[in-house]
Design goal:
By secondary structure, the protein is mainly α. 48% of the residues lie in helices and 8% in strands. It contains 5 helices and 2 strands, in the order E-H-E-H-H-H-H. Helix 1 links the parallel strand 1 and strand 2. The protein is elongated, with a radius of gyration of 17 Å.
Length: 97
């Protein structure tokens, strides 16, 4: 999923806490900000303040899916679908949160 991308950091949910993913992120020059699993044996450090910002992204995608045309993917062409996703994102970011 992240192959071929460069990044400063990757913020992910605890479900993505694996040694292979962390190693892949580090090889690509990034920092893994992944909360360790509650039942994990190893306690790994992570940036808690940056991890809290993940909630902002999740809320954005939740609002984006409120648009029926985005959630159901009625558009026949990918370019039209992406155009409406951009339009919906503009509408969402224009609102006061």
């Amino acid at each position: 999923m992240i192959q071929g991308y460069t990044c400063g950091g990757v913020v992910a949910d605890a479900a993505y806490d694996s040694d292979a993913l962390r190693a892949s992120i580090v090889v690509q020059g990034g920092v893994a900000v992944i909360r360790p699993r509650q039942n994990g044996v190893e306690v790994r450090p992570y940036d808690e303040d940056l991890y809290k910002l993940r909630n902002v992204i999740e809320r954005f995608f939740h609002r984006l899916k409120q648009y029926r045309r985005v959630a159901t993917r009625y558009d026949k062409y990918a370019s039209r679908y992406l155009g409406f996703v951009h339009f919906a994102a503009i509408l969402i970011t224009g609102k006061k949160m």
